[in-house]
Please model this.
Amino acid sequence: MITPEPHHLADLLRELHAEGTPWLPAGSGSRLHWGPPVRDTATVVSTQRLNRIVDHAVGDFTVTVEAGTPLRELQEVLRRENQWLTIDWPWGSDADGNGAGSVGGLVARGLAGGLRQRYLGVRDQLIGIGLLRADGVAAHAGGKVVKNVAGYDLMRLFTGSWGSLGLITEVTLRTSPQPPERRGLLLQGGSRPSMSCAAGCFAPASPPN
Model:
Protein backbone atom coordinates (compact mmCIF):
# COMPACT_ATOMS: atom_id res chain seq x y z
CA MET A 1 0.00 0.00 0.00
CA ILE A 2 1.40 3.36 -1.07
CA THR A 3 1.01 6.22 1.43
CA PRO A 4 2.29 9.33 -0.36
CA GLU A 5 2.77 12.72 1.21
CA PRO A 6 -0.18 15.06 0.52
CA HIS A 7 1.80 17.24 -1.91
CA HIS A 8 2.91 14.17 -3.90
CA LEU A 9 -0.51 12.54 -4.17
CA ALA A 10 -1.74 14.30 -7.35
CA ASP A 11 1.61 13.70 -9.09
CA LEU A 12 1.42 10.00 -8.21
CA LEU A 13 -2.07 9.66 -9.70
CA ARG A 14 -1.02 11.48 -12.86
CA GLU A 15 1.92 9.11 -13.20
CA LEU A 16 -0.25 6.02 -12.71
CA HIS A 17 -2.76 7.39 -15.21
CA ALA A 18 -0.09 8.05 -17.82
CA GLU A 19 1.30 4.52 -17.40
CA GLY A 20 -2.16 2.97 -17.56
CA THR A 21 -1.63 1.36 -14.17
CA PRO A 22 -4.86 0.48 -12.33
CA TRP A 23 -4.97 1.47 -8.67
CA LEU A 24 -7.30 1.07 -5.73
CA PRO A 25 -8.12 4.02 -3.43
CA ALA A 26 -8.00 3.43 0.31
CA GLY A 27 -8.08 5.25 3.61
CA SER A 28 -6.57 3.21 6.43
CA GLY A 29 -7.06 0.04 4.40
CA SER A 30 -8.97 -1.68 7.22
CA ARG A 31 -11.86 -2.88 5.03
CA LEU A 32 -10.32 -3.61 1.66
CA HIS A 33 -11.38 -7.23 2.06
CA TRP A 34 -15.06 -6.30 1.98
CA GLY A 35 -16.93 -7.23 -1.15
CA PRO A 36 -15.66 -9.18 -4.14
CA PRO A 37 -11.94 -8.81 -4.86
CA VAL A 38 -10.94 -6.20 -7.41
CA ARG A 39 -9.18 -7.79 -10.36
CA ASP A 40 -5.83 -6.67 -11.75
CA THR A 41 -5.27 -4.10 -9.00
CA ALA A 42 -2.05 -4.64 -7.07
CA THR A 43 -1.47 -0.93 -6.42
CA VAL A 44 -3.31 0.54 -3.42
CA VAL A 45 -3.10 4.31 -2.88
CA SER A 46 -3.84 5.34 0.70
CA THR A 47 -4.77 8.73 2.16
CA GLN A 48 -3.36 7.90 5.61
CA ARG A 49 -1.07 10.93 5.54
CA LEU A 50 -3.94 13.27 4.77
CA ASN A 51 -4.88 13.37 8.45
CA ARG A 52 -5.32 17.02 9.40
CA ILE A 53 -8.37 18.71 10.83
CA VAL A 54 -8.43 21.71 8.50
CA ASP A 55 -11.11 23.80 10.18
CA HIS A 56 -13.66 23.42 12.95
CA ALA A 57 -16.25 26.19 12.92
CA VAL A 58 -17.63 25.55 16.39
CA GLY A 59 -20.34 28.21 16.17
CA ASP A 60 -21.47 27.04 12.72
CA PHE A 61 -21.41 23.34 13.68
CA THR A 62 -19.23 22.31 10.74
CA VAL A 63 -15.84 20.63 10.52
CA THR A 64 -13.49 20.20 7.55
CA VAL A 65 -11.01 17.34 7.69
CA GLU A 66 -8.64 15.56 5.36
CA ALA A 67 -9.91 12.18 4.25
CA GLY A 68 -7.30 10.09 6.06
CA THR A 69 -8.22 11.46 9.49
CA PRO A 70 -9.24 8.59 11.80
CA LEU A 71 -12.92 8.80 12.71
CA ARG A 72 -12.18 8.07 16.36
CA GLU A 73 -9.65 10.90 16.53
CA LEU A 74 -12.13 13.34 14.98
CA GLN A 75 -14.85 12.41 17.46
CA GLU A 76 -12.42 12.99 20.32
CA VAL A 77 -11.58 16.48 19.04
CA LEU A 78 -15.26 17.34 18.63
CA ARG A 79 -16.06 16.01 22.10
CA ARG A 80 -13.83 18.67 23.65
CA GLU A 81 -16.18 21.26 22.18
CA ASN A 82 -19.29 19.32 23.28
CA GLN A 83 -20.02 18.32 19.69
CA TRP A 84 -20.03 15.07 17.73
CA LEU A 85 -20.70 13.51 14.35
CA THR A 86 -24.05 11.76 14.55
CA ILE A 87 -22.63 8.62 12.98
CA ASP A 88 -22.34 5.08 14.31
CA TRP A 89 -18.98 3.37 14.54
CA PRO A 90 -18.73 1.34 11.31
CA TRP A 91 -19.38 -2.38 11.46
CA GLY A 92 -16.27 -4.19 12.59
CA SER A 93 -15.16 -1.47 15.03
CA ASP A 94 -14.70 -1.92 18.75
CA ALA A 95 -17.21 -0.39 21.14
CA ASP A 96 -14.84 2.52 21.83
CA GLY A 97 -14.35 3.24 18.12
CA ASN A 98 -11.00 1.53 17.78
CA GLY A 99 -10.67 0.22 14.23
CA ALA A 100 -13.33 2.59 12.89
CA GLY A 101 -11.13 3.57 9.97
CA SER A 102 -10.83 6.96 8.31
CA VAL A 103 -13.43 9.63 7.69
CA GLY A 104 -12.91 9.41 3.94
CA GLY A 105 -13.37 5.65 4.05
CA LEU A 106 -16.60 6.09 5.97
CA VAL A 107 -17.95 8.43 3.29
CA ALA A 108 -16.76 6.20 0.46
CA ARG A 109 -18.55 3.20 1.98
CA GLY A 110 -21.65 5.21 2.84
CA LEU A 111 -22.50 2.96 5.77
CA ALA A 112 -25.04 3.88 8.42
CA GLY A 113 -26.33 2.25 11.58
CA GLY A 114 -29.17 2.80 14.01
CA LEU A 115 -28.44 6.51 14.45
CA ARG A 116 -29.67 7.01 10.90
CA GLN A 117 -33.24 6.61 12.13
CA ARG A 118 -32.90 9.92 13.98
CA TYR A 119 -30.04 11.82 12.37
CA LEU A 120 -30.07 10.40 8.80
CA GLY A 121 -27.00 8.87 7.16
CA VAL A 122 -23.48 10.12 6.50
CA ARG A 123 -24.43 11.51 3.09
CA ASP A 124 -26.88 13.82 4.84
CA GLN A 125 -24.11 15.10 7.14
CA LEU A 126 -21.80 15.83 4.20
CA ILE A 127 -21.86 19.42 2.94
CA GLY A 128 -18.56 19.67 1.04
CA ILE A 129 -16.06 17.37 -0.64
CA GLY A 130 -12.62 17.57 -2.24
CA LEU A 131 -11.34 14.82 -4.51
CA LEU A 132 -8.79 13.77 -7.09
CA ARG A 133 -9.89 12.21 -10.36
CA ALA A 134 -8.12 9.16 -11.73
CA ASP A 135 -5.92 11.46 -13.85
CA GLY A 136 -4.85 13.49 -10.81
CA VAL A 137 -7.04 16.51 -11.54
CA ALA A 138 -8.49 18.07 -8.36
CA ALA A 139 -12.19 18.88 -8.01
CA HIS A 140 -14.42 20.31 -5.29
CA ALA A 141 -18.14 20.42 -4.65
CA GLY A 142 -20.33 21.92 -1.96
CA GLY A 143 -18.89 24.29 0.59
CA LYS A 144 -18.35 24.91 4.29
CA VAL A 145 -21.80 26.12 5.25
CA VAL A 146 -24.88 24.02 5.89
CA LYS A 147 -27.12 25.98 3.49
CA ASN A 148 -25.24 25.49 0.24
CA VAL A 149 -27.00 24.50 -2.97
CA ALA A 150 -24.45 25.62 -5.55
CA GLY A 151 -23.24 23.18 -8.22
CA TYR A 152 -23.83 19.49 -8.72
CA ASP A 153 -24.50 17.34 -5.67
CA LEU A 154 -21.31 15.31 -5.94
CA MET A 155 -21.45 14.61 -2.20
CA ARG A 156 -24.34 12.17 -2.58
CA LEU A 157 -22.80 10.71 -5.73
CA PHE A 158 -19.49 9.92 -4.03
CA THR A 159 -21.07 8.68 -0.79
CA GLY A 160 -21.21 4.90 -1.12
CA SER A 161 -19.21 4.87 -4.36
CA TRP A 162 -16.47 2.71 -2.75
CA GLY A 163 -13.83 4.89 -4.41
CA SER A 164 -14.89 3.93 -7.92
CA LEU A 165 -15.36 7.56 -9.03
CA GLY A 166 -12.24 9.16 -7.58
CA LEU A 167 -10.11 9.56 -4.49
CA ILE A 168 -11.74 11.57 -1.71
CA THR A 169 -9.17 13.92 -0.19
CA GLU A 170 -11.21 16.25 2.03
CA VAL A 171 -14.72 16.43 3.47
CA THR A 172 -16.78 19.03 5.31
CA LEU A 173 -19.36 17.58 7.67
CA ARG A 174 -22.14 18.92 9.81
CA THR A 175 -21.73 18.41 13.55
CA SER A 176 -24.33 18.35 16.33
CA PRO A 177 -24.38 19.25 20.02
CA GLN A 178 -23.21 16.45 22.27
CA PRO A 179 -26.23 15.01 24.11
CA PRO A 180 -25.95 15.16 27.91
CA GLU A 181 -26.54 11.42 28.16
CA ARG A 182 -26.78 8.44 25.85
CA ARG A 183 -28.03 4.99 26.72
CA GLY A 184 -28.29 1.74 24.83
CA LEU A 185 -30.37 -1.40 25.24
CA LEU A 186 -28.94 -4.79 24.33
CA LEU A 187 -31.36 -7.64 23.57
CA GLN A 188 -29.90 -11.11 23.14
CA GLY A 189 -31.65 -14.14 21.72
CA GLY A 190 -33.01 -16.81 23.99
CA SER A 191 -36.15 -18.82 24.56
CA ARG A 192 -39.38 -17.79 22.89
CA PRO A 193 -41.11 -16.79 26.17
CA SER A 194 -38.28 -14.46 27.13
CA MET A 195 -38.29 -12.82 23.70
CA SER A 196 -42.06 -12.46 23.82
CA CYS A 197 -41.71 -10.74 27.18
CA ALA A 198 -39.10 -8.36 25.75
CA ALA A 199 -41.34 -7.57 22.80
CA GLY A 200 -44.20 -6.85 25.18
CA CYS A 201 -42.12 -4.24 26.96
CA PHE A 202 -42.05 -2.20 23.75
CA ALA A 203 -45.63 -2.80 22.67
CA PRO A 204 -47.71 0.39 22.44
CA ALA A 205 -50.14 0.98 25.25
CA SER A 206 -53.78 0.20 24.56
CA PRO A 207 -55.82 3.28 23.69
CA PRO A 208 -58.27 4.42 26.35
CA ASN A 209 -61.87 3.28 26.01
